[in-house]
Amino acid sequence: MKRIHLLTLALALGAAAPAQRWTEQKANAWYGQQPWLVGGNFTPATAINQIEMWQAETFDPARIDLELGWARAIGMNTMRVFLHDLVWQQDPKGYQQRIDRFLGIAAKHKIRPMFVLFDSVWDPNPALGPQRAPTPGVHNSGWVQGPGAKVLGDTAQWPRLETYVKGVVGAFAKDRRVLAWDVWNEPDNMNGNSYRAKELNGKEKVIAQILPKVFAWAREAKPTQPLTSGLWQHDDWSADAKLTAVERIQADESDIISFHDYNDAAVFERRIKALVRYNRPILCTEYMARGNKSTFAGSLPVAKRLRVAAYNWGLVEGKAQTHLPWDSWQKPYVDGREPAVWFHEVFRRDGKPYREEETELIRRLTAK
I need a surface site. Which of 238, 269, 291, 351 has the fewest CB within 10 A? Predict the structure, then answer.
């Protein structure tokens, strides 16, 4: 009887063991089943931010269908798409239905999205309801963080975030239409050129506490898709000693390695080679800022040669206004003129490519 009791206890403890990061073998086997992944960071032109994209009153499936059709026509097969915890809190069932509808539209165009659960970039005070109009001439003037600073700084509200993570990941944990989960975008971004004065004091330390929990919550939902959070801030990831505390969490907890790079092709390649040491699939989940010498012509051939997934920022010029440069926060394009060179985006609102040579390059490189 004692042996049986001990065996039962051991089995119970084993069943309760936390889910673990994927092994290198599992991660590489998963990646080996994927095509070369090429896409963009997607918000339809009719939405200024992720709340407006997903709220019932402003969810725009017709526009989403149209724009994803343009993406597929040039060979794109994936999109990185931001979710928001407030929309889930307001209406979990309705939000789940809208995500399901989005996935149906994406699948129609043979596009598999990576969903982003949380984001530390831009306005730290998000709110539901009608979103403000774009600030004339300013890059991404209405984008919001999720969770907001008040929630992030209040551990009593973290159980709500846990409910959101487990709810949304659990709802689509076995859905083959979902490619992957990016648990937190640029988690330690302090938004120095925009909202620094409104940021949570000690944000980096709070992020270091909550980020491992978010990975754990997502894993408890038992997704069949991999988890990641992209390195973004520093230029040298070649050794653990060179990583910040948050970067080390991102690298240690990610099933697949992801990163951001808005530099020229030489820096892009150097960063990739610094990440090879993890022996895991590598995905660049943000790149392409023409004014910063990050271009399709420079970076995309490198990504193909090294078989690194590539997600440029943006797809269609719209309310986010990310065709304008970052420094438009300091020097707005208030007279309505276009910048000499678009910063991000591939298409104009009517579906015409900003540069035909870029869409032809993407189409040629993604052709089987």
Answer: 351
